[in-house]
Amino acid sequence: MLSPKKLKYRKMMRGKRRGVSSRGSDVSFGEYGLKATESGWVSANQIEAARVSLSRETRKGGKLWIRVFPDKPITSKGAEVGMGGGKGDVTNYVVVIRPGRVMFEISGVTREVAVYALTQAGFKLSVATRVVFRD
Known about the structure:
By secondary structure, this protein is of the alpha+beta class. It has a domain at 32-78 and 100-133: Aldehyde Oxidoreductase, domain 3 (Alpha-Beta Complex), CATH 3.90.1170. Helices cover 20% and strands 28% of the residues. The protein contains two helices and seven strands, in the order ββαββββαβ. The strands form two sheets. It has a four-stranded antiparallel beta sheet, with helices on one face. A three-stranded antiparallel beta sheet has the order 2-5-4. The longest helix has 14 residues, at 44-57. The chain is elongated.
């Protein structure tokens, strides 16, 4: 799974998920892309599941670009732990997704295969997505 090698701070605040994505909103590398239509967090596990799904559907025939990286640490406290005692341990890493962000791109496959593969990968993610094409 993806996780950063080094962080400036070990734990991070939750933050806001307002606004739209201005960077990374165009299909830049491949021919087809998977674009988010709502905001949310996508975890490293979900990115890996989508990557596996894409590589299976394209039969490793096309080229794949992952345009997001989970660099935000998420903490949680154990079950049945009382209040107090500080912030919990880091359990997972997520990427903050805003509407308009292109998360995956593929090329080297037919249009039908690309649309089907990206749709299947979108089912693995916790945000609503749509398939976009390079103009």
